[in-house]
Write a structure and sequence with these properties.
Layout (H helix, E strand, L loop, with lengths): L2 H9 L6 E6 L7 E5 L1 H7 L3 H4 L15 H10 L5 E9 L5 E12 L5 E9 L17 H28 L4 E4 L5 E4 L1 H10 L4 H5 L10 E9 L5 E7 L7 H17 L4 E4 L5 E4 L1 H7 L12 H10 L10 H9 L1 H5 L2 E6 L3 E9 L5 E7 L1 H23 L4 E4 L5 E4 L1 H7 L12 H10 L10 H5 L1 H9 L2 E6 L3 E9 L5 E7 L1 H29 L9 H18 L2 E9 L2 H8 L1 H18 L5 E4 L4 E8 L5 H14 L2 E3 L2 E3 L3 E8 L4 H17 L5 E3 L3 H21 L3 E10 L5 E12 L3 E3 L1 H10 L3 H20 L7 E5 L7 H12 L5 E6 L9 H12 L2 E8 L6 H7 L3 E4 L1 H4 L5 H17 L3 E4 L5 H10 L3 E2 L10 H14 L1
Parallel strand pairs: 25-26, 28-30, 30-31, 31-32, 32-33, 33-34, 34-35
Antiparallel strand pairs: 1-2, 1-5, 3-4, 4-5, 6-7, 6-9, 8-9, 10-11, 10-14, 12-13, 13-14, 15-16, 15-19, 17-18, 18-19, 20-22, 20-25, 21-22, 23-24, 27-28, 27-35, 28-29
Helix pairs in contact: 10-11, 20-21, 21-22
The structure holds ligand C2E and calcium ion (2 copies).
The site of one calcium ion has 5 residues, from β32.
């Protein structure tokens, strides 16, 4: 057995400080070679600081060294142990008093080992400045320190001798009960009694077998689980005679050298023996303790000396408690003494009924334990204050510690979670309590080993608990194998994150909707202009790879405006929806349609060069869109014109302006036509564009003025009225006829503006010229359909009032081709009530039904000029003309014949019933000034 092992197994176990010094041959002062753990704990010195240094380093200055004294008494022949009062210097410099027992023995090399066991007297220390001792040079110390290792080794071997010198049998056992070490007294005892073989010894030595072999239950657990036992015995053969005497004295000195109190009472509780330690622990005057004293007296004495503060005031009761069989029958008892000193009493009984009591000073242990408990309590309090669940499982997955929050999170009954419970058990409890939402419905699987294993291996895990509560589990294995689990309540975080996610989803949807809206038409859900140009870009990119052409079909409804104006916007919307449905039905995959606003649609196609697909699609659309639709229960015809342009070029704007031009061309040709763009259209278009700009400018500058064509009474030949016809007095091009600007102005939707200019100017001029006359000439105005709206009517009324003569409006027969709604008829009535006569212009060219005519109930019909020209072309012409005039007469309407160019025509028409005539035969349209001179000559000349 080596020194280290001995230290650990024996010397470091005892709670009493032990120091061993060595005095080499011919040296003057002993040097320290070893101090045990208790020494360090009590006096503060650590072995590394001391070993190899002279013993006076742990003594107050200028004191005699008790080690040296003990060594000297050995050489003087005074054998055995010595107990003496010494003073010792604590590492912090303070001085402590102590009782010290010395055991000295030879090292076999003329040197000595001095083994000192200490018992500090008081807790309080005298503080005394430490004066470094000059004795012994640093070099010497250093040299000796180098030797210490060796000396310690030697001492290790000699420790056996030290222990052998110990008079009591002494043995060390490992945790299997096998003896590790036996001292001489122990071995002698065994052989003397011939009792115990090695084998038997293994099973323990505590049964007396009728012999007085008492094992004091002085057993402490070393950290490696070895057991150190000291066995004291009182061998019978040695009880009598000198040997017994000698043995007894050695035993006494041995027991006295033992620093913890040891006492033996007989069966009647009378004191048989006590060592110095016991006497000192019970009395300030140890000599008062005498053999034969009753335990009761001893206790009272101890109370008197203030040893048992608990007992003061209830001495009798307290002593009786101690003397009660319960107390005396217990093998261990912990007592607290004054000054927070703790002793543990170990009781045993010998065969003859003696009580042997050993008291161990357990102050350090108790304090340590208390500190540990306090620390643990504090830790647990801290953990409980922590609001999130926290738990530690040990390396075997058993519960070590957890806080309240964890208990609550795992169980409905917090008592369930006991320390030591296996983790899977805790999981089972939690599942039963419904605490693990993720496990609900799959409990079996959750509890399976495989699952539990994977659960543990997850370092981060998110749990959803009932009630939309969320926890995050953080698991970590710490160095000692413990599993630390921390749960964080992430409910707020999760909810926030979800809110953010929802918000961004909403945002995304909104974004998508906005983008969609930005690219699509609200009404028809077709793409819009921007959408089309995006698609065009895509087509252009594709064409770079695949070649071919891009074709655009510009689709425009022929009669949409009319429907909108006459049937209202809701009907217009219905028509647009129907149209978009039809267009959609006709376009194929990869072909794109967009609505450009109003009644304008564009289809974009990517086709191989010379493909006929665009033309085919255009024809299909023209046909499909010519079919009537039922809107508001009425059959409604719109029809469409289409312009087609195709290009291998990349410029979308150009393509679309080309298809637009082609559309314009189609419209110019009449309704329901397809116009295909060719480059000559560009020139026309440019011209048209220039004219359009010019018209708009001219309206602003009021360059339009009325020319007047007289209306003549068929019977008298008198001029009875005037038709105002628009002329454009162009600053560069002179007087322009309606045919040169009116169609374009209609396209530009400004025909109404021109009407208005003409109307107001004519009223003003004529009021000036004829207002004063007795019978002012009537004035007829050509009115485009959209001028008959509520906004205009009030203004019209005002002007009509300002003219003294009659005013009538000529509306083209085509306006009445379709049945007009009630609103329109009401507006006509309103005009009439303002004094405006309603005439149907160009009657007979269209196919207005008699029914429609009756509903409108006009004041007068003007027979279309082209019919009038038939009048002198024989019977054929007359056959056509006559019934038309007769319709008017039958409906009791006045009839005008216009375009009368010859006197013959005038005569026939008058005969046929026309009461008014108009035409070049009488006069051409002329400016106001010319009219005035015409009128003066005409009325005189007629
Ligand atoms: P309209 O209402 O039928 O007007 C009569 C047209 O016939 C006039 O042509 C007139 O110059 C022409 N005319 C008159 N007598 C004869 C004749 O004996 N022989 C021939 N060959 N022609 C004759 P204008 O002034 O060029 O007007 C053409 C059309 O333009 C008008 O046809 C009318 O529909 C429209 N218009 C003219 N001024 C206005 C206007 O201020 N507003 C609107 N909305 N339309 C107008
Ligand atoms: Ca007219
Ligand atoms: Ca006419």
């Amino acid at each position: 057995m080596n020194f280290e092992a001995l230290k650990q197994r024996f010397l470091d176990l005892t709670s009493d400080p032990i120091a061993v010094a060595h005095l080499a041959d011919k040296e003057e002062s002993p040097r320290l070679i070893y101090v045990n753990r208790a020494f360090t704990r009590v006096f503060g010195h650590v072995p590394e600081d001391l070993s190899g240094l002279p013993t006076h380093r742990v003594l107050p200055p200028r004191t005699n060294c008790p080690f040296a004294t003990a060594a000297k008494s050995q050489s003087d022949g005074t054998n055995g142990t010595k107990s003496t009062q010494v003073r010792i210097r604590h590492a912090d410099g303070s001085i402590m008093g102590a009782t010290c027992s010395f055991l000295v023995m030879e090292d076999g090399n003329k040197g000595l080992y001095i083994c000192a066991t200490w018992r500090p007297d008081t807790i309080a220390r005298e503080s005394e400045g430490f004066v470094p001792d000059a004795r012994g040079s640093a070099q010497q110390d250093h040299a000796y320190r180098k030797q210490v290792g060796n000396i310690s080794e030697t001492y290790g071997m000699h420790l056996a001798a030290v222990l052998d010198a110990f008079p009591d049998p002494l043995a060390l056992h490992d945790d299997h009960g096998r003896p590790v070490f036996k001292n001489r007294a122990y071995t002698a005892l065994l052989s003397q009694k011939g009792l115990v073989t090695e084998a038997e010894d293994k099973n323990g030595y505590s049964t007396g077998n009728g012999h007085h072999h008492d094992t004091l239950p002085l057993q402490k657990q070393a950290h490696d689980a070895d057991t150190a036992g000291i066995r004291l015995n009182t061998p019978e053969p040695l009880r009598n005679g000198e040997a017994a005497e000698r043995f007894s004295s050695r035993l006494v000195s041995a027991l006295n050298s033992y620093p913890d109190p040891i006492v033996i009472y007989d069966a009647d509780l009378n004191l048989v023996f006590c060592n110095d330690g016991y006497a000192a622990s019970m009395s300030d005057h140890p000599e008062e303790l005498v053999e034969g004293m009753h335990l009761k007296e001893v206790l009272h004495m101890a109370i008197r000396y203030g040893r048992y503060p608990d007992a003061v005031g209830r001495e009798e009761e307290w002593v009786n408690e101690i003397l009660s069989p319960t107390t005396l029958g217990s093998t261990t008892q912990d007592v607290e003494l004054d000054g927070d000193i703790h002793h543990r009493l170990l009781r045993s009984w010998t065969a003859n009924g003696d009580h042997v009591v050993i008291r161990l000073n357990s102050t350090e242990l108790v304090r340590q334990k208390r500190a540990a408990e306090a620390a643990q309590a504090r830790l647990i309090a801290a953990l409980n204050a922590y609001p999130a669940p926290f738990v530690i499982y040990d390396s075997d997955d058993c519960l070590v510690v957890c806080n309240e929050a964890y208990r609550e999170s795992m169980s409905n009954n917090p008592e369930d979670l006991k320390v030591g419970l296996h983790r899977t058990e805790v999981a089972r409890i939690a599942i039963r309590a419904g605490k693990i939402a993720n496990a609900i419905g799959r409990e079996e699987e959750w509890m399976s080993d495989a699952h539990q294993q994977t659960e543990v291996e997850k370092t981060v895990q998110d749990l959803e608990l009932p009630g939309d509560v969320h926890h995050r589990l953080l698991r970590s294995r710490v160095e000692n194998g413990d599993l630390v689990i921390l749960r964080i309540d992430t409910t707020e975080l999760v909810r926030q994150r979800r809110a953010v996610e929802e918000y961004s989803k909403m945002l995304e949807t909104a974004n998508r909707k906005i983008t969609y809206k930005a690219l699509h038409d609200d009404l028809t859900d077709l793409g819009n202009r921007r959408y089309l140009s995006q698609k065009f870009e895509e087509f252009v990119a594709k064409r770079k790879v695949a070649g071919g052409e891009i074709a655009a079909l510009h689709i425009d409804l022929d009669r949409f405006k009319h429907i909108n104006d006459t049937m209202g916007h809701a009907a217009g919307d219905e028509v647009l929806l129907e149209v978009s449905r039809r267009i959609r039905n006709n376009v194929g995959e990869g072909e794109v349609v967009a609505r450009f606003g109003g009644d304008e649609f564009v289809a974009l196609l990517q086709v191989p060069a010379d493909s006929q697909r665009p033309e085919e699609l255009a024809k299909a659309l023209l046909e499909d869109l010519s079919r009537p639709a039922i809107v508001k229960g009425k059959e409604c015809r719109f029809g469409a014109s289409i312009g087609l342009a195709r290009t291998p070029l990349a410029d979308t704007d150009k393509l679309l302006s080309h298809s637009d031009l082609a559309l314009y061309k189609a419209k110019a040709r009449g309704r329901g036509q397809l116009g295909v763009f060719d480059h000559s259209d560009l020139e026309n278009a440019q011209r048209t564009k220039a004219v359009a700009d010019d018209i708009l400018r001219a309206i602003e500058q009021a360059e339009f003025e009325p020319f007047y064509q007289p209306l003549v009474d068929a019977r008298t030949g008198h001029v009875v009225g005037l038709e105002a016809l628009a002329r454009w007095r162009h600053p560069e091009r002179g007087i322009l006829q309606p045919a040169e600007f009116l169609p374009l102005a209609t396209d530009l939707n400004v025909a109404g503006d021109i009407d208005k200019l003409i109307f107001e100017k004519a009223i003003r001029e004529c009021q000036q010229s004829f207002g004063e006359q007795e019978n002012p000439l009537s004035i007829s105005f050509n009115v485009s359909e959209n001028r008959i709206n509520d906004n205009e009517i009030a203004a019209i009324g005002h002007h009509v009032d300002s003219y003294a003569g009659k005013v009538s409006f000529e509306l083209l027969e085509t306006i009445f081709l379709e049945e007009q709604d009630n609103d329109f008829l009401q507006r006509l009535d309103k005009l009439r009530s303002l004094g405006v006569a309603i005439e149907v212009d160009d009657f007979g060219s269209g196919r207005a039904s008699v029914v429609a005519l009756q509903r409108i109930n006009p004041d007068r019909l003007k027979i279309d000029r082209r019919l009038v020209s038939l009048v002198d072309q024989g019977k054929e012409g007359l056959r056509l003309l006559k019934p038309i005039i007769e319709i008017g007469l039958a409906l009791e309407l006045d009839v005008t014949a216009e375009g009368v160019e010859t006197p013959e025509q005038a005569e026939i028409l008058a005969d046929l019933g026309c009461d008014r005539l108009q035409g070049f035969h009488f006069a051409k349209p002329m400016a106001h000034q010319d009219l005035l001179s015409f009128l003066s000559s005409w009325n005189h000349g007629w």
